[in-house]
Design brief:
This protein is an alpha/beta fold. It has a single domain, classed as Rossmann fold (3-Layer(aba) Sandwich). It contains three helices and nine strands. A six-stranded mixed beta sheet has the order 4-3-2-5-6-7, with helices on both faces. Helix 1 crosses helix 2. The chain is globular, with a radius of gyration of 16 Å. The chain binds guanosine-5'-monophosphate. Guanosine-5'-monophosphate binds next to strand 5, helix 3 and strand 8. The site of guanosine-5'-monophosphate has 17 residues, from strand 5, helix 3 and strand 8.
Length: 174
């Protein structure tokens, strides 16, 4: 695939406007809390960089590396932690920052795993949500955009580990 095969689905201006709104909402909700942002690698690194700078509250930033077995374009729900958090989250107000929730299987695993570490609160912020593909329901507190069932690329999301640096959300035209 080439970059020219991508069609823009959500452009940079729209992304940045929505992330500013999410930043305001999260800053308001966490004004008296002990916010620990947890970005899920690799896909969330671009979103987390922009979202964290849209916050007016203090926070720590940590990452959790996950890889799911099987095909790179569909989730098997069998997830492995490839790189763990660098600090405990016990007693903290954890906000998981994810690029996309598709079947929900990855997030279900993650929520179960993080709950065993006894955070004070645990919420999810996802840039994209594809409700048509849901296999397990997970509580999503902050959603950037709800999208239809298309495989999207860019703004952190990959195609065969490439194109994460494309600055907009696109999809492949066939
Ligand atoms: P889930 O477990 O919710 O089905 O899938 C979550 C993971 O699958 C995401 O974190 C992402 O890595 C990958 N994924 C799901 N849908 C897409 C998509 O449309 N594009 C890309 N690049 N990855 C996706």
């Amino acid at each position: 695939m080439k970059r020219s095969d991508l069609e823009v689905l959500i452009d940079q201006a729209v992304l940045h406007r929505r992330i500013a709104e999410l930043g305001e909402e999260i800053s308001h909700d966490y004004r008296d809390k002990d916010l620990a942002l947890v970005g899920i690698l690799k896909g969330s690194f671009v979103f987390l960089a922009d979202l964290s700078r849209a916050l007016s509250v203090e926070c720590t930033i940590d990452f959790l590396g996950l890889s799911s077995y099987g095909s790179s374009t569909t989730s098997s729900g069998v997830v492995q932690i490839t790189s763990d958090l660098s600090a405990p989250i016990e007693g903290r107000d954890v906000l998981v920052v994810e690029d996309i929730i598709d079947t929900g299987l990855t997030m279900r695993y993650l929520l179960d795993n993080l709950t065993t570490r006894h955070p004070r609160s645990l919420r999810i912020c996802t840039l994209l949500h594809k409700p048509a593909r849901t296999k397990v329901e997970v509580p999503i507190h902050y959603t950037g955009f709800t999208i239809e069932d298309k495989f999207v690329i860019g703004y952190g999301l990959d195609y065969d580990n490439r194109f994460r640096n494309v600055p907009y959300i696109g999809h492949k035209v066939t």
